Amino acid sequence: MQRLRAIMKKELLHIIRDVRSLTIIFLLPLIMLVLYGYAIRLDLKNIPLAVWDADNSQESRELIRAFTHSGYFTLTLHAITPVDPLEVFQERRAKSVLAIPVDYGARLHDGRAIPVQFLSDASESNTATIAGQYAEQIILSRLMSRFGTDAPLPDVRALVLFNPELESKVFVVPGLVAILFMMICALMTSITIAREKETGTLEQILVSPVRTAEIIIGKLFPYMFLASLIGVVVILIAIFWFGAPFVGSPLLLAVFSIVYLLCSLAIGILISTRVRTVQVAMMAALVITMLPSIMLSGFVFPIASMPLPIRILTHIVPARYFLVIIRGIMLKDASLYLLRFQILPLCILTFILLVVSIRRFRTTLE
Amino acid sequence: MFVLGAHRANDETGDAMSILIDDIHKTYGAQGALAGVTLSIREGERFGLIGPDGAGKSSLMRILCGLIRADRGSFTLCGLDGNRDLRAIKSSIGYMPQRFSLYPDLTVAENLRFFADLFTVPRRERDERLERLYRFSRLKPFAARRAAALSGGMKQKLALSCALIHTPRVLILDEPTTGVDPVSRREFWDILSELSRDGTTILVSTPYMDEAARCDRIAFIHHGRLLAVDTPAGIPGRFPLTILEFRGRRFPVRHDDMLRVRGVASVRLLGDRLRVACESREAVERAVRDMLERSGAEILSVRTDTPSIEDTFVHLMHEEPGHV
Amino acid sequence: MSESAFAVETKDLTQRFGRFTAVDRVTMTVAKGEIYGFLGANGAGKTTTIRILCGLLRPTSGSAFVNGHDVIRYPERVKAGIGYMSQKFSLYEDLRVRDNLVFFGGIYGLGRERIEQRIAEITSATGLTELLTRKVRGLPTGWKQRLALACAVLHDPGIIFLDEPTGGVDPVSRRTFWDFIYSLADAGKTIFVTTHYMDEAEYCHRIAIMYQGRILMCDSPSAIRESTGDALLEDAFIRLITRESDTETGGD
């Protein structure tokens, strides 16, 4: 107990003394929050839209009006003759094309299935995805207004339902927490261990009768505490400043945050066993934890639209699971049962990583 | 006296063995290997390890500290088995690695307290020991200063203090004075002498011959093998030649001609001195003197000198088969 | 003044940093071809003096001439004629021995042919020829030191400044290193060494013992030992500076 306390106390002192790093750790999430909250808006307005209205009926014009009135789209081309989407995209006349078939009005009357085509320029994949979601939503609401709840069935995604305005900050905040936890735990632990290797203090500690577990747990607690603190601050700012919802159970979130933090920590230890210097640890942690957590977790790009090999790869990115869990709890009050396919793999991943990292830590240093 | 360890007081058998190393082998990486080291070190002895880079000094010390495991062989330390009682051994060792290492962002006192806790020094005793360590290291006025802001000599004393906080019976120091100025080095060695007088066994490695001279016994280690183990006074006895020392000016830099003189083994220019290792003074003095004078050197005096530890060391290293 | 008989000549050289006097009225002369050592503890003013002589620092007062050039008025001329090697010798570890030499030749503005010629000369003198294609990483410390010195003398400087060149190497490597230095001195180069190791100081023709920015004594190692009656240079050194600090406290 005395040894464990000594290591924790020392680690806390390191954190407090290193004012610069501490400032960065606190400022970075706030900057990201502000950037995503204000500057980088994933939700779009005035997407340029080209329409090929083959029907040119009252119904088709109403549909077009629904698109333009939504505010999401601006009509840049309105033709009744065929429009070549490739040409439109290449000439940058529009980012999306809506094609309305000849018998749109007639089919609507009969209540038959209507093959309305919506194409987006996927060279900007984000815009494309979001434009597609907007389009689905507009068409759905048109149908609903006409047929009520019996409307024929466009496949509308769940996330649209829970964020009808598709507001990005609501997404961004949980994602940010997931990335922050990974950053602080994995990056900071790998750096602290690498620093002790670099200065040689690790050698000094290892010649004492201290146990491996004491070193790891002693390092773990201060950083978990720090990460949780920042997580709480970010969520509070998100709720009270940006008006993000928090409808689920904070306790449930706390429990899974701890699992996820342990997972990040294990990755941090694993990195530290392979590197000798702080610089390499930093680079490795960035590449191994930060990038996948941002790019492959579904935070920025939807996993469903990734090519298969990458989609498979996302299964070993812990942030992928935690992102769904935290979004589920914060935005949807999701239950344990609903989240079982995220919780289970996250727990398994954490367990494996912890065992491997502790074992490796022991063997590489003794 | 500082009475930091005071082990001797409890021990009547003055010649008890503190470290017994039996045929230790270790290979790893491209350089650094131990090829069968057998050695015994007495309690309270200051034992010096001398050898070039990669000779195996650090490896041997790291094995004794339990940082790495030997491939073959065994050792006991204070009667504890190195293969079984590693944790107990760790409690009785104080170790200063080659780059002695402290937490630069912690203060002197915080560093000391951290290591005290790591070795589970009881709180009651802690402050008293801290005081004692402050007294010998004279670090008390700097207790609140961060380790990063200490001078080289003070850092070294702090590192030693951290290694001594649990009053270890054995102190293992890996080139402890590298980068430390002569005044601090001397002070440091005075402290080591006090410790050994109180019964602490000290195993120290050093590249400096003047430090080697302050040990009770020294061992030359080269290519993972011990070449010679003896007292500093006994070591030069292993040098089979005579040293002839010329003092003067304008000595030539190249000595090929002198090396061709029968009986001359090596020639070394050292400032205003030319040291010739030879079989006997009579055989070579005349010839060498002639050569020097012909090359325009001015000889002020000639004398035979006792071989130094360094002379012996260099000689033994060249004698050893496989030397490059 | 460019045809001075001395490689280094200073008069009352003083450097103050605020209220702290790092170099205190240092007057010295170093002859061409001499190996001159600065021996002192950390903070004795060795490095500051070297930096002034290299034209990196403008002294507070006094004068200094290096290779006959005034370091205050023509630091650029001084820099062109000196070589410098520090304890933390700056080699590119991931490059080959040869690449390092070519690079350092390049920064001193040597032409391709000249570089080749110098590399051939120096590597045969240092025994580095066989290692030209080896990567620096993985070479023993002793060889790295010789390479660092080779890089520092590639442009054929008249004076070479060595800052604790062989700290922490074994005696055999140290001897080989100093053989190289002696051959440079023999070729007329002036060697200026700072050190706090006696093993290293013993190799110098003359050493100046520095203490608190002043030169306490300057003579050959054997003469210094004789003057204090000590068998070891370190004992002599400690005696001299202890005596000095005693007279200081006594005078207070």
Number of E strands of chain B: 14
User: What is the count of DSSP helices of chain C, taking H or I runs of 4+ residues?
Assistant: 9
Low-confidence stretches of chain B: 5-14
Uncertain stretches of 5 or more adjacent residues of chain C: none
What name goes with the CATH superfamily of the largest domain in chain B?
A: P-loop containing nucleotide triphosphate hydrolases
Helix percent of chain C reads 25-40%
Instruction: Determine the strand fraction of chain C and express it as a percent band.
Output: 25-35%
Q: Can you tell me the number of structural domains of chain B?
A: 2
The average pLDDT value of chain C, as a whole number, equals 87
Q: How would the global form of chain C be characterised?
A: globular
CATH topology descriptor of the largest domain in chain B:
Rossmann fold
Distance between the termini of chain B: 47 Å
Q: Describe the biggest sheet of chain B?
A: 6 strands, mixed
Radius of gyration of chain C: 19 Å
Would you summarize the structure shown here?
The complex is a heterotrimer of chains A (about 375), B (about 325) and C (about 250). Chain A has 15 helices and 4 strands.
Record keyword descriptors for this entry:
heterotrimer, A: 366 residues, alpha/beta, 15 helices, C: 252 residues, Rossmann fold, 2 domains, 4-stranded antiparallel sheet, globular
